[in-house]
Amino acid sequence: MAKGSSLVGSCHSIPEHELPSSGKRMPLLGFGSAASPLVPETVKMAALEALKLGYRHFDTAAKYGSEEPLGEAIAEALSIGLIQSRDELFMTTKLWCGDAHGDLVVPALKRSLEKLKLEYIDLFLIHWPVSAKRGTYEFPIKEEDFLPMDFNGVWAAMEDCQRLGLAKEIGVSNFSCKKLRDILAIAKIPPAVNQVELNPFWQQNKLREFCQENGIFLSAYSPLGAIGAFWGSNRVLESEVLKEIAKAKGKTVAQIALRWIYEQGVSIIVKSFNGERMKENLEIFDWSLNVEELKKMSQIPQSRGVPGKHYTSKYGPFKTVEDIWDGEM
Ligand SMILES: NC(=O)c1ccc[n+]([C@@H]2O[C@H](COP(=O)([O-])OP(=O)(O)OC[C@H]3O[C@@H](n4cnc5c(N)ncnc54)[C@H](OP(=O)(O)O)[C@@H]3O)[C@@H](O)[C@H]2O)c1
C-alpha cells in the first residue's frame, strides 16, 4: 500500500490516499468515463449506478464529452439524497491540447466546471504533454496543428488554477520521467499526480520508482487493457497467466489485474458502464495476491498498449512514439 494510503476514513470500503496540497483523500478506485462512441445518457445512468454502489471518484476530461452527463448525475444524486454534499466526491478532469496555452488554461477549467456544475475540481491534469493549435478540439489532432508545449506558461497557469481555488490539486497525464523532471525543475507547486497507462502488461517499474522518490502519486488508466476501446486490446483479460491465478483464487481476471495494481500502491481508474462489472471491480480490497502469484505476474513480458501514435506528427514535437516517452519504452 502506498505511503499516505489507508483503509480507514472511507465509509464505502474503498481505500483512499491523502494528497499533499489539499489533504483531500483520493479514493483508490475511480470510475472512468471515456468511451467511443460516448452516449451521454448512458454515462449519466452509469454514474448514478456507480454512486449507488459506493464509487466516489470520477475521472473525466474536456475531450471525453462526459463532463456534462457526470454533472447531471451529480446534481441528481444530490437532489435525491444519494450523496449529501459535493465534498464527498473526488472529481478529476483534464486540460485538452488545444487549450494547453498559458492564457487558455484557467478559462478551459472554468468551462469544464460549468459543464460539471461544480465550483471546484479535486484534480486537474494536463491530458498529454503536447499542445495543439489554440482553441482546436478535434481528435485525432490534425498533423499540422501540433505544437510543442510551453511548459513554463502552461504549468504556471495550472498553478493559478490551484491558487484561485478552482482546483484542489494539479497534475499531469502521460508524462515520462524526463518530462516530470522538467516540470519539477520549474514548478512552484509540484504535480500531485501522473495518470498513465498501467496494468500487468505495462507495469511502469521505472516510472513508479521515480514517482515514489519524488512524491508524485500514480494513477492507472486502462487497468484492464481498455478492452473494446479503439485504443485498447484483450491482452489483459485474455492473459493465460492471469486466468490461471484467477481460477486458483476463485476471482475474475479483471479482479486479479485490479488487485495487482492496488498492491503496487497506485490508484485505479476503471471504466465500466455495467452495474455487475462495476460491483465486481469494487470487490478487490479484502483479499491479496501471494508471493508466488506476484512473482508470476512480474514475469509477464512488457510493452505499451497505448503508445500514443495519435500524438505523433512530422510537424509536431513528437515525430515518433519514442519521442513522446523520451525513449522510456
Ligand atoms: N489520461 C489518459 O490519457 C487516459 C487514457 C485512457 C483512459 N483514461 C481514463 O481511464 C479510464 C479507464 O481506462 P480505459 O477506459 O482505457 O480502459 P479499462 O478500464 O482498462 O477497460 C474498459 C473496458 O473494460 C470493460 N470492463 C470493465 N470491467 C470489466 C470486468 N470486470 N470484466 C470484463 N470487462 C470489463 C469495459 O466494458 P463495460 O463498460 O461493458 O463493462 C470496457 O470495455 C477511462 O475511462 C478514462 O477515464 C485516461
TrEMBL record:
The active site is at Y64. GO terms for biological process: secondary metabolite biosynthetic process. The record marks K94 as: Lowers pKa of active site Tyr. GO terms for molecular function: oxidoreductase activity, acting on the CH-OH group of donors, NAD or NADP as acceptor. The keyword Signal does not apply. Substrate binds at H127. Residues 31-299 form the NADP-dependent oxidoreductase domain. Pathway: Secondary metabolite biosynthesis; terpenoid biosynthesis. CDD domains: AKR_AKR4A_4B. Keywords: Oxidoreductase. This is Aldo/keto reductase. It comes from Corchorus olitorius.
